[in-house]
Fold this sequence. Notes:
Structural class: alpha/beta
Order of helices and strands: EHEHEHEHHEHEEHEEEHEEHEH
Number of strands: 13
Bound molecules: NADP nicotinamide-adenine-dinucleotide phosphate, ligand G4F
Amino acid sequence: xxxxxxxxxxxxxxxxxxxxxxxxxxxxxxxxxxxxxxxxxxxxxxxxxxxxxxxxxxxxxxxxxxxxxxxxxxxxxxxxxxxxxxxxxxxxxxxxxxxxxxxxxxxxxxxxxxxxxxxxxxxxxxxxxxxxxxxxxxxxxxxxxxxxxxxxxxxxxxxxxxxxxxxxxxxxxxxxxxxxxxxxxxxxxxxxxxxxxxxxxxxxxxxxxxxxxxxxxxxxxxxxxxxxxxxxxxxxxxxxxxxxxxxxxxxxxxxxxxxxxxxxxxxxxxxxxxxxxxxxxxxxxxxxxxxxxxxxxxx
Length: 299
Ligand code: NAP
Ligand code: G4F
């Protein structure tokens, strides 16, 4: 049997790079969609040593024709849709752009699949942000959504359109409701890398402090390379479905900062300042995921 092939939309991001490595190791032919920027952004693929092993295709989520072209060229068995304006804070500054890219972009891909080959399997990068400020102490696939940002509203649309294409057209389409996941490849504006990067600079004497926003927010933080395996597992099941991927532990930003400074032999209180600049108009206070379904069905 010939090897399978996959398109990763958003291959230049954290998850895209780790998933590309994971699929290459499984023997897949990997196509990666990237958007044209004035300066190429392939550092993660280079860091993982796989830049020369992936087939890169330029396309943009706001340009449906470019997505159609990419799918026709690569004839994939599976599409992993990981591209998004993924920074929650920026979605308050660019709410319409976030809706276009993070919301409608998903429909553009699903429409392309429907017209070109509805047998292509589809993974949608859904998120724990969908739960927003839901009152439950732990969230699973049945917990009601209550999005609390333009980003989460756009992702809610993406979640539902994925289900709608599954139920209307029989497309094998899955939502992975992934809780926060981090790694050395995480973008520097997200809080974990922002903190770890600042700790390193402070230790090296390049900086003396870091400004943060809401220190009380709690997140369920996991490890990105493990989470991309869960994405793949969802597309290997007999039936398409939606799954929560999480660790079942919640920790605050304050705890994270405390630990990060402690590891470097520093007291966080001497270096962390709270700045209004990093407070969001609305924030999600508490996320903790119940992964029972994924444990039972995906192992
Ligand atoms: P990321 O590092 O921000 O990567 C996002 C990717 O989307 C990048 O490759 C980016 O390209 C691409 N992109 C943005 N706008 C685009 C456009 N208009 N056309 C084509 N590509 C575009 O995000 P991540 O952490 O890997 O997360 C992957 C996905 O999972 C995202 O959809 C995110 O919303 C979702 N998610 C993430 C987490 C998490 O904790 N990491 C949790 C739940 C869900 P550039 O490199 O050019 O910017
Ligand atoms: O690291 P964050 O920016 O991640 P956030 O908002 O939870 O979103 C990430 O995880 C989602 C899954 O739940 C993804 F869907 C999304 O794409 C993204 O990957 O912020 C985490 C928490 C927030 O409560 C934020 O207000 O940290 C708080 N925080 C406090 N100070 C800060 C800062 N966040 C950032 N980015 N920068 C700060 O200075």
